[in-house]
Amino acid sequence: xxxxxxxxxxxxxxxxxxxxxxxxxxxxxxxxxxxxxxxxxxxxxxxxxxxxxxxxxxxxxxxxxxxxxxxxxxxxxxxxxxxxxxxxxxxxxxxxxxxxxxxxxxxxxxxxxxxxxxxxxxxxxxxxxxxxxxxxxxxxxxxxxxxxxxxxxxxxxxxxxxxxxxxxxxxxxxxxxxxxxxxxxxxxxxxxxxxxxxxxxxxxxxxxxxxxxxxxxxxxxxxxxxxxxxxxxxxxxxxxxxxxxxxxxxxxxxxxxxxxxxxxxxxxxxxxxxxxxxxxxxxxxxxxxxxxxxxxxxxxxxxxxxxxxxxxxxxxxxxxxx
Length: 322
Known about the structure:
Elements: E1 5-18, E2 22-41, E3 46-52, H1 65-76, E4 83-90, H2 100-115, H3 124-135, H4 141-146, E5 149-155, E6 158-164, E7 170-176, H5 183-188, H6 196-214, H7 220-223, H8 238-249, E8 254-256, E9 263-271, E10 274-275, H9 278-286, E11 293-296, E12 305-311
Parallel strand pairs: 3-4
Antiparallel strand pairs: 1-2, 1-12, 2-4, 2-5, 5-6, 7-9, 7-11, 8-9, 9-10
């Protein structure tokens, strides 16, 4: 396997995982994107330039997550490891439960695919498997790669994912706090066992959530009831869970986004530019406005994409499959 491109561009959406009861399985791609360019260098080494989120904080060498994912993918298909120059324009907040690490991993994997002379060697199944190997679970990687609403699972060690429909009246709205929270810390407070009754109830809510998101947005409030993880995380994100409680008390289907601390409201469109969550969000956030950034983020239906800018001979071919 050899490289066929010298300069590629990649675009990857933010994601929100769990969506309440769909723990480690359901995920939603959101219209907020990281963009990066990868240049193949004529000499060994790595240079990483970061603009936006993570600038001056994330590694600027081989430890950078995009570089690690890209190298993993090239190794998987037996391709050479060139010198690299990455230019990252990051818009997805880090450490907030919006899939920034999954976006970096998927970006690196798609960059590797676009660099290959035979990109089909890294099809979507291979990319999802590698992303899960790096991330540990596919709930953010699947929507980042495929776009839209996804359900991901493993079957005898194989990682699988399917896209599910989202009703056009569903409007995701995020409330992003100023503070960060590591996924490891958020997962560390979860119990190793849960009551059978809670597990059974959670399965019913997760199934109902698929119906609510796809065809019955009027059922979103009961469908987003979680019994497995959110209350256990209350000690490490009390403000976030307080906001979830306030919104749900007002009839808004609010959950913790991924491992938090961002709050996701699955609002319903009530008119042009208006949702059923607007008044409740204004009141709840207005009472604790310090540090919250609230914005509607439409569902991203396209997922990640990669484009070859110049091939190995310096020519400018068309887009690759993404």
